[in-house]
Amino acid sequence: MEGLWERLIEILEQESALYRDIFELSKHKTNTIVEGKVTELEQLTGVEQKMLLGIGNLEQQREEAVNQLARHLDVPADQFNISLAIKKAGEDLQDKFAGLKDEISSILKELKEVNDLNSQLIEKSLEYIDFSINLIAGDLPDITYNAKKSGGKDKGGSFFDQKV
């Protein structure tokens, strides 16, 4: 059973490292978004997707290890969590699990903050692009002075309709 505990720790360490890499990549994405480097952003997103596939693979391995440990401990797998692992693991592994729990929680919190910022930046960029397209296409509401609307007399058509 000691090997199962070690395997779980190994998987959690790999997940932690991969989450840290994704966090660093997300911080880089923030700068890329601010600088408007669309091609580089696409490349970073592709790298991030590969990393997320790696996380998915590690999650499957973690679930397998947890299921095996839960069977050995006579605990339902859906009730087996890191807090239970800390309690049930040997004394030499308890600190390791506690450290991994804190580390992964911290990384995920930081990652969420950066991803929220990136989402806001992208949303603002899209709003600006939409505004620019509407400005060019002339789909914006009339924001110029119009004498008819203000109660005055309208002098006729646009500047280009005047007789030469």
Q: What's a quick, concise take on this entry?
A:
The protein has 4 helices and no strands. Helix content is 76%, strand content 0%.
Detailed description of the structure:
This protein has 164 residues and is an all-alpha fold. Helix content is 76%, strand content 0%.
Secondary-structure map:
Elements: H1 2-35, H2 38-73, H3 82-88, H4 91-137
Helix pairs in contact: 1-2, 1-4, 3-4
Domain tally: 1
Number of helices: 4
Oligomer: single chain
Low-confidence spans: pLDDT under 50, at least 5 residues?
155-164
| N-to-C CA distance | 95 Å
CATH superfamily: FlgN-like
Q: Find the count of extended strands (DSSP E, 2+ residues).
A: 0
Structural class: mainly alpha
Radius of gyration: 28 Å
Mean pLDDT: 86
The fraction of residues in strands falls at under 5%
The SSE order reads HHHH
CATH level 3 topology: Methane Monooxygenase Hydroxylase, Chain G, domain 1
For the record, the CATH class is Mainly Alpha
Major sheet details = none
Can you name the CATH architecture? Up-down Bundle
The level of helicity is: over 70%
Specify the overall morphology: elongated
Offer a few descriptive terms.
single chain; 164 residues; mainly alpha; Methane Monooxygenase Hydroxylase, Chain G, domain 1; 4 helices; 76% helix; elongated; disordered C terminus
